[in-house]
Amino acid sequence: MRYAQSVSDLVGNTPLVRLARVTDGIRATVLAKVEYFNPGGSSKDRIAANIIDAAERSGDLRPGGTIVEPTSGNTGVGLALVALQRGYRCVFVVPDKFAGPKADVLRAYGAEVVVTDTNVPPDDPRSYYSVSDRLASEIPGAFKPNQFANQNGPRAHFETTGPEIWRDTDGRVTHFVAGIGTGGTISGAGRFLKETSGGEVVVVGADPEGSIYSGGDLHGYDVEGVGEDFLPDTFDSSVVDAYERISDTESFAMTRRLAREEGLLVGGSSGMAVVAALRVARDLPEDAVLVVLLPDHGRGYLAKVFDDEWMTARGYDTTDTTPSTPRSHA
Ligand code: PMP
């Protein structure tokens, strides 16, 4: 019989699939690493087990303990998958910008969700960061993974994501493109690929317009899970060779094309990463092999990027991807 002992054993070993339709005019091979094949539906499943294992070893997390973390969703799902199975309580603090379907998923896994106001500065007592700090100090036996500082995050990608890409491309990967949220993915997988290739693999960070990583003005944006207004400890800038700065308009148009043309229903940060990948790939020769990481599933965004009314209300053009038969909202 061939079966997993638990769903957390199914994390990782996500497939590479060639992008064939959105790559018109590109000679290089562009491969998407589709992280929605993880059991919780995102790349964040990878860091959860690493973080919890380390906290159990260090004694920061003890039997009956509570995990408290600010998360826009994916990290919470990953943590919930592992934690609830092992008998830990989970309390997640979610900014109202991300509440809705993503928070509903966390509740469905049995986690408690506290919604906070997005429109207050980080040091305001009502902020996502302040509320999670307060809960972590008030709840007895609380452990705060702190995904923006926890080095077990990048380590998970160094130990799994990077080696999988190297293995599945037979070491032929020449470029790696990923978005940057905590920076765990690009820092961990990027460092593995750089070290293993003797510095040959080029690592490109995809960043929303308005985020700190690629420089320029800091301002709000709609794509979720990527970009920051501070530099987290989990981000190692020495790994990144270049940045591509991508507008929400481009990210969302590509996200919709990926569903319709490639059959890949993914989130907006995946569309953003693919826009960056295609910009890089445009100038590459035929023998180049570019791997772009698609962090999560599109199901959590049906009321946003895949909804024409939401898109139009936010000022995005939907004409090139709207079906000829409008759907009824009755
Ligand atoms: N996209 C989405 C949807 C995410 O949730 C995250 C994680 N915040 C990322 C991209 C970026 O991954 P990382 O934190 O490893 O940089």
Structure description:
By secondary structure, this protein is of the alpha/beta class. It contains nine helices and ten strands. Strands 1-2-10-7-8-9 form a six-stranded mixed beta sheet. Helix 3 (101-108) links the parallel strand 4 (89-95) and strand 5 (112-116). The structure holds 4'-deoxy-4'-aminopyridoxal-5'-phosphate.
Query: What gyration radius follows from the Cα positions, in whole Å?
Result: 19 Å
Shape by Cα distribution = globular
Ligands in the model, by name, code or SMILES, are: 4'-deoxy-4'-aminopyridoxal-5'-phosphate
Give average pLDDT, whole number.
Answer: 94
How can the largest sheet be summarized?
6 strands, mixed
Number of E strands: 10
SSE pattern, N- to C-terminal: EEHEHEHEHEHEHEEHHEH
Briefly characterize the structure.
By secondary structure, this protein is of the alpha/beta class.
Topology record:
Layout: E1 16-18, E2 29-34, H1 45-58, E3 66-70, H2 74-85, E4 89-95, H3 101-108, E5 112-116, H4 128-138, E6 142-143, H5 152-168, E7 175-179, H6 184-196, E8 202-208, E9 242-246, H7 248-262, H8 268-281, E10 289-294, H9 308-313
Throw out a few tags for this protein.
330 residues, alpha/beta, six-stranded mixed sheet, 9 helices, 10 strands, globular, binds 4'-deoxy-4'-aminopyridoxal-5'-phosphate, pyridoxal phosphate, Cys_Synth/Cystath_Beta-Synth, TrpB-like_PALP_sf, TrpB-like_PALP
